[in-house]
Amino acid sequence: MHNTNPIITEQMSEPADIKSMTKPELTAFLARLGEKPFRAGQIFKWLHQRQVRSFEEMTDISKDLRNVLQKTAQLTVIKSVEVQISKQDGTRKYLFALPDGHMIESVLMKYKHGNSVCISSQAGCRMACRFCASAIGGLVRSLHPSEMLEQIYRIGQDIGERISNVVVMGTGEPLDNYDNLLRFLELLSDEHGLHISQRSITVSTCGLVPQIRALADRKLQITLALSLHAPSQEKRLLLMPVAAKYDLAQVMEACDYYFATTGRRMTFEYSLVHGVNDTEEDAEQLCALLGNKNCHVNLIPVNPVRERSFRQPDMNTTMRFKNKLEKNKINVTIRREMGRDIDGACGQLRKKYGH
N or C: more exposed end of the chain, with fewer CB within 10 A? Predict the structure, then answer.
């Protein structure tokens, strides 16, 4: 990765977050401790394949080295505080405590094609989208790569099954945590770790234009999903404050650049809000906006949030909207609602704990 890891440039008195290090960085860190390069491979495997919770569990490492690591490194582990399991479809909503006590949420969704985990990239969010529970209370802090990985590791261990798909679409704006996101993606797809294919990873953004363009230049094979939610700049401004900084035309140009640079089809997320963005005119405007693009539209009947007045449209309205897009040859699906009998919307479970 292009950015230097502050974790290994700090003084040795500061514990190093070794779970956030790439293998070359871990090798360099251990060299400073006088260790041979092969040790990095052993430790990397303990961290990312076996996902141990303590240095003591690294049984093929000498006791002396384990003692040194106890003093010079930290082994980031997050703790499960609450798990809600849907009786309808088996969806699991996890509330995790970070090492500093802040709370984050993750969701496990079981599909026929495998287990998908939706993770958070920040504790809280500064984007303040009107229909989102995650934004209530603002941004607390961004997550380290280790804390993003840990959500997947702990859920995989909890269910005793492989995680095959990862969606960075929980609490937070992933591109507002850009450098940590890149490092996380590298570690997640590393052949010596979980080795999840980049094509099985989706990253969501509300439309941070410079970061979309920078991400395109990385030429990764991930899917980028834009939280669009409105067919016009005027309406987007009502729902998403970020539209004041980056207007819709700029955002769409950045999405076109992403597709042209990576060859990866964009996904557009569109939360349907009753009486706000679900009219016939909205559907026509959306067709005009997306009609000539190689893309996929994900229609999401909005999750009701206690603190907001937004409601879902009825099924007839949703189907009319979908049919209009399909008649204009736009690839569209209605997101299957999962976990509605638990705190399914992003940020709702965390909010119950005052975070």
Answer: N
pLDDT above 90: percentage of residues in the chain: 82
Contact by Cβ (8 Å): 255, 235: no
Q: What is the pLDDT of residue 133?
A: 77
Annotated catalytic residue 234 = no
Query: What one-character-per-residue DSSP string does 25-61 give?
Result: HHHHHHHHTT--THHHHHHHHHHHTS--SSGGG-TTS
Q: Where are the domains of the chain?
A: 16-74, 79-334
Report whether 347 contacts 354 (CB < 8 A).
no
Pick the CATH number of 16-74 from 3.90.1150.10, 2.30.30.100, 3.40.5.10, 1.10.150.530: 1.10.150.530
129 has binding-site annotation: yes
User: Was 125 annotated as part of a binding site?
Assistant: yes
Per-residue pLDDT, 96: 98
Instruction: Report the pLDDT value the prediction gives residue 305, as an integer from 0 to 100.
Output: 65
Strands 295-301, 266-272: pairing kind: parallel
193 among annotated binding-site residues: no
The CATH code of domain 79-334 reads 3.20.20.70
pTM of the model: 0.91
CA distance 287 to 291: 5
CB atoms inside a 10 Å sphere around CB 265 = 14
Residue 345 predicted with pLDDT over 60: no
Is 298 marked as binding a ligand? no
Q: What's the gap between Cα 204 and its chain centre?
A: 7
Residue 105: active-site member: yes
Whether 4 has a pLDDT exceeding 50, the answer reads no
Calculate helix-pair angle for 280-290, 315-327, nearest 10 degrees: 30
